[in-house]
Specification:
By secondary structure, this protein is of the alpha+beta class. Helix content is 15%, strand content 31%. The strands form 5 sheets. The chain has a 3-stranded antiparallel β-sheet, with no helix packed on it. A 3-stranded antiparallel β-sheet has the order 9-8-10, with no helix packed on it. A hairpin with a 6-residue loop joins β8 and β9. It is elongated and about 85 Å long.
Length: 262
């Protein structure tokens, strides 16, 4: 780091780098500069340095202080400690890597090899598999109310467990949104409502109960997904969800409310 009254920041940086490189005995290969600047033009100058690879006990690190003249940095012991087992790859030079198929002269064989290599890499690529959790459908007869839950044991009023309806996430996997849970206590016409977009719902007289799980807002994702349809029975004020297009008696289909993994 350094401070300067000049507007040649890149040149000043190259000058400082050249000084430190000379102290180490490093050849910059044309990246440095021989220009030197006075302490009036450039001040508060220092560079932190450290080695990578080699024997950790021979590590060289510190801060080069430009206010101390004739400072040298001895890297000989560290350099001598480097071997095939502890060497560290820092980077490749430009055009330093050549695809294997480019070493084949025959054009047909080159294309065959290229295709085989890319197919192999595609098959062996690592993909993150996100863990899902079961979402149960419950029926509370006393309130004429369907409930979606990731934990049937936490629900009150002893609703009937209708089984696992689908699988979703209990954390925000990439591309998912929280599914918010609302409840309206209205005696035998109570209702639970689940939505990823509360701003589009009529939620008067509903109490917010938190995030129940996470699901996809659409099917434009890398995962294989299926839609979850929402149905509504106005006579008992009940919402019901299912992964199939069905015609439960007394209910109308309101459309897709979110998507979940297949």
């Amino acid at each position: 780091q350094s401070e300067s009254t000049l507007n040649k920041r890149q040149e000043v940086a190259k000058s400082d780098l050249s000084i430190v490189s000379a102290a180490i005995g490093l050849e910059l290969g044309g990246e440095g500069t021989t220009t030197k600047y006075s302490s009036k033009d450039v001040f508060n100058r220092n560079i932190k340095y450290y080695t990578t690879g080699g024997d950790p006990s021979k590590e060289v690190k510190g801060t080069y202080d430009f206010n101390k003249t004739n400072t040298s940095i001895n890297t000989a012991n560290w350099q001598n400690s480097i071997n095939d087992d502890n060497a560290t790859l820092i980077s490749f030079d430009e055009n330093g890597l050549i695809p294997l198929h480019e070493l084949v002269d025959d054009q047909y064989k080159k294309e065959v090899l290229k295709t085989a290599i890319y197919d192999y890499l595609k098959r062996k690529e690592v993909r993150v598999k996100h863990t899902t959790t079961p979402i149960y459908s419950l029926w509370w007869n006393g309130g004429r109310d369907h409930i979606l839950t990731n934990n049937p044991l936490k629900e009150i009023n002893s609703p009937t467990n209708e089984g696992i309806l689908f699988y979703a996430y209990n954390y925000q996997a990439p591309g998912t949104l929280p599914v918010h849970r609302y409840y309206r206590n209205n005696g035998n016409k109570s209702n639970h409502l689940y939505t990823i977009s509360p701003q589009t719902e009529v939620l008067s007289n509903y109490v917010y109960e938190g995030i129940e799980f996470y699901a996809y807002p659409n099917q434009n994702v890398q995962e294989l997904v299926k839609p979850i349809y929402r149905y509504y029975n106005s006579s008992i004020n009940d919402h019901y969800w299912h992964y199939n297009i069905i015609n439960p008696s007394g209910y109308i289909r309101e459309g897709i409310t979110f998507y979940v993994p297949k």
